[in-house]
Amino acid sequence: MTLAGLALAFASAVALNWGWVAQHAAVASLPPLALRRPVHSLAVLFRHRSWLVGFGTGLGGWALYVAALRFAPLSLVQGVAAGGVGLIALFARRRGAAATRAQTVAVALSVAGLLLLAVSLGGGVHERPAHLSGVAAWVALSLFTSAAICLVPLAVAASLGATAGILYAAGDVVTKSAVGGSTWLVLVPVVLALHGGAFAALQLAFQRGSALASAGVSTLLTNALPIAAGILLFHERLPGGALGLLRVAAFVLVVLAAALLTAGSSLRLDLRRLAVPAGLAALAVAVRLPGVWHNALSQDEVASARILGEPGVAGMLHHVVRTESTPPLWYVLAWLTHHAGVPIVDVRLLSVLFGGLLVVVVFELGRTLVGPGLGTVAAALVAVGYEPVYHGSELRSYELLALLAAMFCLVLLRAVERPSPRVDVALGATVWAGLLTHYFFVYAVGAALLWLWVEPRARATRRRTALAVAAGGVLATPWFPAFVAQYRHDRFWWIHSFSPRVVVVTPLRLFVPYAGETVALGVAVLLVLALGVALLAGTHRGRLVAMLAVVPTAAAACAWAAGERTYAVRNLIETAPFVAVGAVAPLRLLRRPVTTAAVAATGVAAVAVVAITQAAVPHPPFQRIAHALVAEGWRPSDPVAVYGNVFSYRAPLEWYLPRRPLLDVSFPTDRACSELFVVSRRGDDFAVRRLADVRVAKLEHASLLSASPTSCVRVSTNPRLAPLA
pTM for this structure? Predict the structure, then answer.
């Protein structure tokens, strides 16, 4: 049955690719098409015989594709389709288009990929139906990405082709879910809507570029994305051993072949320009990945994990309101990722992904302000700085906050310099996403509006841009009642009263953890940042970056001084991209390139050594401690004594102990405990001791946790100390 499905997939690839080339040849000769006149544009298309033949052939190819999905897993069907993308080059050449060397290599790679895919079938195929929430998450992310594609520096044909490919891929994922499923009647309209949007984008792309620039990019994404969806959503397992490696190699080859088809067309990717940001992103991912699987879940991450474990969306959102002090967007993304089949610990990879993207955005921002060299230095600081690295492998929203703040800056500049409806939508969407990721994003929005008000360059587009920002804010207001409820819960009671010293060292602590007592070094960094801000103030771009580096911290500090105890360095991670650019700007004053390179390399290396060393310090091995407690005979009726911050122990132990009991902060009575378990640090390790008939009061500096009240301990009645279940 699988072989029959793959044969149908290849026939589908032939029909679809021939149809696209035929449609491109026809549309290129037609009068301009416009979305504002849909009926007229469709009439023009359907009156053209050659286009109609190509369209009909494509519909037949899609019918073959649906049939193929009935017999074979999604990733294998798309692998065959991606291998068949080389047919675009063949069909285009037969119509007179010249083939480049890259396109010839692409055809060879696609054939090699198909052969490897055929060999790998000896390892069998495995798949399960996708969860409907996972499919919904994929569609939502596809719609968001297709709307934001205007931010990518592509030619118009490639941009529209990419939009078409993303929407076609989403339609294919929904189609696979509908084939043979009980929800097909509900999903068919979704498929038609997605394919309708993709159809419109692709026809517009045909008039704005070559077949390879439009259909090539579209086909690349149409085939690559469902391969990933097959593994993530439909749980398609790779065969073991060499056959598994062959299948992975086949996927890589066919996707690479599709990518090469865009080379030499109007897309014209500059690989040398991509090498630096790609290397920086790889560095950021490399320093964050170890923390994903090496560290046990921390106190805050356990709170996130409990939210992700909620079975429904309503319960998840209610849990966010009840136990968190941040908005829901990150939790929605993480919840959808987990319910798509990703284990809770692996959902940390979202933060790793956001960290890699953050570094690329910082490089692009720095490149335009301080040049490629110092832009690389700024991005490297963010790649290895302490707060971005530490939170870059956490089950929390901080890395997404930093990424959205950096994207907000780029989109705002684009809205002022090159306004368009698509950029306005992207700006509003970024504001909406930022405000629903972390409440401190409002400080970045305030800084941007201040810049928009005083910046002469923004005068011509001020009203339009402000309306786009306001629209994003309005779209986020339905969450406001939940924000009020969260604020009343006072989850930030632990923050101390205003401390000027903490504010002074905040820019330094973003990158180096040992800054609590080094006020002098913090002042020095502030002076360097002030010099950088002065240097950046010569351009409108620099003035925006300067405001985003300074205003959020100053505003948060003023609120703290006024009595709002919400100030925490991690909440100001949104300023890290702009502080990094401002901190490296003074290096432009050094006249000798060798001196500049030496100073920059020394600074980045120092930050990397200190920050990565500290970030790499593992969390206490809570899972091992929990296992040791059980091995020693711990029961839910037995209290546990810990040394240090009791909150850092409580939630992780609750998570890793059997049946996940709730542990209350407790206090000793005057009676002895028949059984008491003590967790203490021994050097770099932890030990668990079981004590009998002991008075807890004799354990100096110990804190108590208990799952149930006993005669020797009493449970705290302070609501602030209650467990967050």
Answer: 0.73
